[in-house]
Structure formats: structure tokens, C-alpha cells
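Good morning C.,

I know you're traveling, so I'll keep this short. The sequence:
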Amino acid sequence: MRELKDILKQAADRNASDIHISMGDPVMLRTDGRLGKLDETVPSAQDFGQILKTYLSAEQLLALKQTGAVSLVIPLGQEGRFRLFFYRKNGGYAMAGRHFPAEIPFFDELRLPERLRTLLGKPSGLILAGGGAGSGRSTTLAAIINELNMTTEKYIVVLSELAEFCHRSIRSLVEQRSIGSDVASAGAGIRAAVSADADIIVLDEIHDAETLGEAIFAAQAGKLLIAGIRAEDTTAVYKRLLEFYEPDRRAEINEKLSAYVQGILAQKLLPLKKGGRAAACELLIFDQAVRNLLKEEKYGQVLSIMQNDKKNGMVTFDDAMAEMESMRLIAGEE
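The C-alpha cells, ready to paste straight into the viewer:
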């Protein structure tokens, strides 16, 4: 089998979003959401052993042996970066990789809702970015950081388990900190950023109650915290946050969230007519009516407000897809 870096570069050249390498199976690429063979090459146990020896440190090899999985990011110069996830399967090994381009996309390039720009100007609070696996959430967070970096003079701390994009300070001071090496945990990283007097904190994902508690603490301390969360739509994002807690604490957390969240973005990738994919975005703005309904867990009525309050910048998925259809970016339903 060829060198892994050569295979990754070929995947990047083909605009593949993902790559799958598994012992005994052909190398597969995901392009525009569809899987297909790179070629007929089938990696052997010897091939995989060489990959592991070349790309994993002694500590990472030990983690793979003990836990069955390990992740890392490798840079490929002008081809960008790949996040690699190695794991055991059926007595052997496999790898899933995701490609992130070297050039960070611009806010307008992703066609993010214009009202989101206003939210990014808020001095404090929580802004949440939702989406399922493979929805482009990481790319959107990178574009948001890039927008803030180019248009504001702020101290921005970016916390992530793996640095999928590399940000260089432009008008703002941008510091990237790795969870697990630079800081012990996401929560510890948030608290450290508050102590260091960061203006804006960006977190790749909130995935537990401890991290959410520290995020609320940051908002209470007058910081703007922007974070990803794995959920399919805006109300699902809000419900997911409450689910981190036991039922007897949810009323308390709901009260805090409804007070400090400024807005929720959610997205999903759709195939374009010309090839490639683009995000359709839903945006929920937290005005007083929305805050009151969420405190009462009247999620269906929140959707009604989104459908009827376009002048405030609310966007539903139906709105976003209709606009993409009118621009002939995607095909309408038959």
C-alpha cells in the first residue's frame, strides 16, 4: 500500500470529506456524501502496522491498545489537515479520517445567516452551533472565529480536543489550546480563559454537565462563549443541554439557559446541483417571547415564532432550503 500521506493528499485532491481505511477492505472516500473506492488496494496487517508505527507516538499506541481508539490531527501543508481516528475491529485495526482545508472559509462564503453577525457582537452570553455528525459544524465554528478575528479587536481563546483549523491572529489575539494537553478538560479550559480575561471563548463541543456549567459561569462572568453541540435542530440543541442534568436539576438549569443563551444556529449539509455540498442553516434568536416559551418547555410554539418572526432574523430549515432552491443551488422536491 502507498504511504498514508500520499493517500490523504489524493483524498484532498478529490475534495473528499472523509476517508476510511480498514484491514481487508479497499480504501474508501466519501465525496459529496457518497462512499466510493479510491482504488482496489486492500491494506494488510503489515500495512497497518507501519501506519501505526509512523504516525502514533508511544503514548498514543498505548492508548489504542488499552482503550481501543485514539484520535490525532496531522497537517498536510497546502492540502490542509486531517483528523484521524484509529480504532480496533475484529482483532485488527481501522482508521476514519476527516479532511479540513488549509484555507479557513469566510462567513459569507458559507452563506451563514446575516443576523448571526449581530449575535457575534454581543458582549456576553452563549451562542450555540448545532448539527449532526458530518454536518459541517467545525467548519462553521472556524468561519465564525475567522469573522471575529478579522473584524474585532478581542482576545479569543479557542478550546478543542484536536486543532482541525489553524488560526493566526489578525485584528484579534487568537490563542488555540488543546484539551488534554494544554488544559486538563474543557471545563478547566473555560475557567482558565475567564481567569486570563479572554473576551470570547470558543469551544468545539459541549458534551457533559460539567462543561455546560462552566460555560454558564463564563457567561455570568461577562464573557461571550460560542460552542458546538451535537443535535439536529435548534430546539433539539436546547433540549440536549437540559438532558445533561438529572431531572431534579433541569428547572434550575433551564432558568439559567433561557437567561444567558443569545441564539442557537443549527445546520445540515445538502447536495448542490453543481456538485459539492452546502449548509442549510436554522437560526433561533432569543428574544423575550422565546425565553418565556423555553422556560415553560413549549418547544412547538417556539417553532411557530421562528416561522412568523422573519423580521427579527429568525430562520427555519424550510426557509433556508426554499432560498437555496430559489437560487437554483439545490433541486426542489419532486
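Safe travels,
E.
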